[in-house]
Amino acid sequence: MRFAVITMTRPAAPRKWRAPQLRAGADARQAAASILDAALAQVRSNAPGALESADPEYLHQLRVGLRRYRSALRVFRKLLRKGPRRQLASAARAAMRPLGQARDWDVLVAGLERIKAPRVLVQRARTRRSAAHELLRPIDTGGLEPGPAAWKKKNESLERFAARVLPRLRRKTLQRAHGLDWTDAGQRHRLRIHVKRLRYAADFLGGRTQALEALQETLGELNDLAVARRLLRDLRPPQSVARRLAAGERRLVALARRQVAALEAED
Predict the structure, then answer these.
(1) Is 109 a member of any domain?
(2) 3-class DSSP assignment, residue 234
(3) How far apart are CA 178 and CA 187, in angstroms?
(4) Cα(35)–Cα(146) distance, rounded to whole angstroms?
(5) pLDDT value at position 265?
(6) 86 and 180 in one domain?
(7) Which of the four pLDDT bands, split at 50, 70 and 90, describes residue 1?
(8) 14 is a domain residue
(9) Last residue of some domain: 97, 120, 150?
(10) Axis crossing angle, helix 56-75 with helix 99-114, rounded to the nearest 10
(11) Are residues 78 and 118 in the same domain?
C-alpha cells in the first residue's frame, strides 16, 4: 500500500524593505514606478505569513510595505492622474484598515511580556490578540498596481523633483513640531505621521534620514503607549502597570524633544 506524503509549505522569512536599484539617470516617474513596485513586493511577500504564522514580524512588515506604498503615492502624486491615484490610495487604505487592530494587540502582548506583567493580564491580552488575528483576510494586491494610464505625461529629473519636494515636506514637519503640546497624545500622533512621511520621502529621494529615523522610532513608541492605555481599559490592569507606562511616556517625551531640537539644528 502506498501512502500520499503531505508536505506543509512554510512562508518565506519576513521581508523587510528593499530599496529598488534605480538606473543611472532615472527620472522621477521611473523612480516612482520602481518604488511602488518595491513596496508591493514587500506586501506580497509578507501577506501569507501574516495570515498563517504566529510570528508578528510578518504583519509588521506587511504594514510597513503598505505604508511605504501610500507614502509613495503621496510623494509622487503630481505624476499620477487624479482619478487612478485616488483609486489606488483608497485600495491601499482599505487593505491597511483591518491590520491595525491585530498589530496593536501584538505590540501590547509583547510589551506586557517584556515588563513581566501579571500572567492573568497577559493571558487576557493574548485572547484579544487571537480574536483580532481571526479577522484578517487575504489582501488583493491586484488593485494596487498602477497601469500605464495612471501616469501623466508630465515628468522631470529625479534630482529636480527631490529639490522641489523635500524642503517643502521638511518645512511642514518642523512647523508641526513647533509649539507642540507634548502631553497631548493626539498632537504627538499627528507629528509622527508628518515625520514618517518626510522620512519615507527622504528615503525615496536620497535625502537625510538618520535623525528622522530616530525621531520616528521614538514617536512610534509613544504611540504604542497611548494605544496600550486604550486597550488596557477593559483588561483591569494593576496600578503597577499603569505606573510603568507613565514612566515610559515621560522618558520618551524627553527623548523626542531632544531629537526634534537636533532636527531643527540641521537647518
Answers:
(1) yes
(2) coil
(3) 11
(4) 12
(5) 85
(6) no
(7) very low
(8) no
(9) 97
(10) 130
(11) no
Three cell numbers at 213? Answer: 529615523
Q: How long a stretch of residues is the chain?
A: 267
One domain for residues 60 and 79 = yes
Round to whole Å and give the CA distance between 102 and 106: 6
Residue 171, C-alpha cell as written in the block:
518645512
Model confidence at 10, pLDDT cuts 50, 70, 90, reads: low
C-alpha cell read off for 237: 490592569
The pLDDT tens digits of the residues spanning 38-50 come to 999 999 999 999 9
- Please indicate, yes or no, if residue 154 is contained in any of the structural domains: no
Which residue type does 44 have?
R
The whole-angstrom separation of Cα 152 and Cα 111 is 46
DSSP 220-252: HHHHHHHHHHHHHTTT---HHHHHHHHHHHHHH
Same domain, 203 and 217: yes
Specify the number of domains making up the chain: 3
Whether the predicted pLDDT of 6 surpasses 90: no
3-state DSSP call for residue 98? coil
Q: Average pLDDT of the chain?
A: 92
- pTM across the whole model: 0.90
Question: Structural domain of residue 107, as residue ranges?
Answer: 99-138
In a shared domain, residues 115 and 131: yes
Residue 18 lies inside a defined structural domain of this protein? no
Cell of 87: 483609486
Locus of grid cell 514637519: 173
